[in-house]
Design goal:
230 residues, alpha/beta, Cobalt-precorrin-4 Transmethylase, domain 1, 6 helices
């Protein structure tokens, strides 16, 4: 068993290998093994688009890493998620630095957070050092292909799952004006404030700040997720 273990959740983007981020590609290069989800119970990658993307990236970027299958049947069952977590634990024990890849962006309807919820409960020390790398979404790609904005000016964007029931909602508040008060913004879930994210001096605050201080400010009211709910 290796002494140091590092798990990185890597978003691959919507399918075009050219749309992977440099950060994601560098993470794949720096790891010792790559976990790829498969819907085949025998662990084969015959029908895996994700596997083909990873193979293409390694070939084009000139590196190789062992790939191990993570059976992901998409049945939304507790035992399936636990089996996937156990597969990652085994790979970490063998290789040390492991990436688990997902299509699109990890924050949008991804298996990643079902797994991270369980890792947070079972291996909090591993969870604390785990990285999540975002990616391009399918609807960002669709917007670019259609040459039509998802939102611009005085408009807003909604992501609506095609389900016939009321659902909890995450709300993103953006494009603020410096000096404006956030008093009128409701807090229904877990509110966080992100200032100058990705830039020097970035600041992340739990809750909402009372007054907007910087133009590059996001307030996100994350829905409260039951870690064992589908």
């Amino acid at each position: 068993m290796v002494d140091t273990q590092q798990l990185t959740m890597v978003s691959l983007g919507p399918g075009d290998p050219d749309l992977i981020t440099l950060k994601a590609l560098n993470a794949l290069k720096d790891c010792e093994a790559i976990g790829v989800p498969t819907k085949s119970s025998d662990g084969s990658f015959d029908r895996s688009l994700t596997y083909r993307i990873v193979q293409s990236l390694m070939r084009r970027a000139g590196f190789e890493r062992p790939i191990f299958p993570v059976y992901t049947p998409m049945r939304f069952r507790e035992e399936d998620w636990q089996a996937q977590v156990e597969r990652l634990y085994a790979a970490l024990a063998e290789h040390g630095r492991v990436c688990f890849v997902t299509l699109g962006d990890s924050g949008i309807y991804s298996t990643v957070y079902y797994l991270l919820d369980r890792i947070a409960e079972q291996r909090p020390e591993l969870y604390a050092t785990c990285d999540v790398i975002p990616g391009v979404t399918s609807f960002s790609q669709a917007s670019a292909h259609a040459k039509k904005p998802l939102c611009v000016g005085e408009s807003q964007l909604q992501i609506v799952p095609l389900l016939d029931k009321e659902l909890p909602t995450t709300t993103v508040y953006m494009r603020p004006k410096i000096g404006m008060s956030t008093e009128a913004i409701p807090e229904e879930g877990t509110m966080m404030t992100f200032e100058d994210l990705g830039f020097a001096g970035e600041k992340i605050t739990e809750g909402k700040i009372p007054t907007v201080r910087r133009y590059m400010t996001l307030l996100i009211d994350f829905f409260t997720k039951d870690p064992h709910a589908v």
